[in-house]
Amino acid sequence: MAEQTPRRNEPRLRPAPLLFEPAEAAGDPEHFFDLESIDDPRALLDRATELTLAFRAAADRAVEFQAIAAAQLADPRRFDRLTAAAIAERAEWTEDYAKKMIEFGRDLMRGVEGNGHGIGDHA
Prior knowledge:
This protein is mostly helical. The protein has helices at residues 23-26, 41-74, 84-91, 95-110. Helix 2 (41-74) packs across helix 4 (95-110).
């Protein structure tokens, strides 16, 4: 799994809505959010860009939740806390990356990221 550096101080983009595909369409490897049916290259670029931004925003948000979970699991006040090595193994990260994610999660929980209101705010 590729490692990413947690991003700070970047504005959170509002993603385009992702439309769920019917099961039969999802099973077709040539089908991807109906992009293959768009003939106009301008419309194709617009919709593909919307999807790219939506997936990027979703991935960024998921990384934030990973970091929060890692920080919670590593919390020394928990009787069942996990070490950075155990978190790394569980998330398929390196131990150094797990340590960075734990710190990133702690920052998020303190409200360092975004508008300063902390967890539960969905900007």
